[in-house]
Amino acid sequence: MKITIEGASEDFEQKLLALLAEHRHELTVTADTEWTTDRAERYLRSLPAGARRFAELVVDSDGYADADTLREQFGKLNGPTVALSRAVPRGVREGWWPEGTRAPIGVVYDPNNPSWQKAIAYEMPRENVPLFREAFVRLDAAPARLNWDDGDAPSALDLPPGWGADDDVPRVLGPNSGPNDRSSG
């Protein structure tokens, strides 16, 4: 028997896992460790900007990016690659994907020089490239997917009313304002 459950609540998931644990000797439980667009999006969102850009370059290169080209972009590669390697175990701990999920991007070493482990490329399995492409499209469209009740959401960089850069808009300044500052009143 094969059972697939999607969209279950966390409470239901916990109860089901407890039931499975009770009958673990009678069952074989396998988890779907394949990458999906949703998992790819979650993975990419969890990365710092540099590592996300690194992943994007691998995806844009159809899943195979030359390490020297990446070094031109990033200098040393240990920063982005460490972030990439930590994202999968973090996702397992957070419950975003099951144990056994493989890293989407792997290192390629020079097979002709096995004693010196310098990366010659980074690759992603071909079947994952379209999933990650779609995940990047979703990330780029993320602000448009938000549903704000009263139109566009204000930016954190928007100035409060009356604080505009226009000369005809008075500003109220504090007691420590300098001699060239304008005040209303």
Can you walk me through this structure?
With 185 residues, the protein is mainly alpha-helical. Helices cover 41% and strands 6% of the residues. The protein contains six helices and three strands, in the order H-H-H-E-H-H-E-E-H. It has helices at residues 10-22, 37-45, 49-60, 67-74, 78-94, 129-145; strands at 64-66, 106-109, 119-123. It has a three-stranded antiparallel beta sheet with strand order 1-3-2. Helix 2 crosses helix 6 and helix 3 (49-60) crosses helix 5 (78-94). It is globular. The relative contact order is 0.12.
Provide the succession of SSEs: HHHEHHEEH
Strand content: 5-15%
Structural class from helices and strands?
mainly alpha
Strand order of the largest sheet: 1-3-2
- Tally of DSSP helical segments: 6
Number of strands: 3
Q: Give unreliable regions as ranges.
A: 144-151
Helix content: 40-55%
Rg from alpha-carbon coordinates: 25 Å
Termini gap: 79 Å
What is the average per-residue confidence, as pLDDT, rounded to a whole number?
A: 80
Shape: globular
Largest sheet data: 3 strands, antiparallel
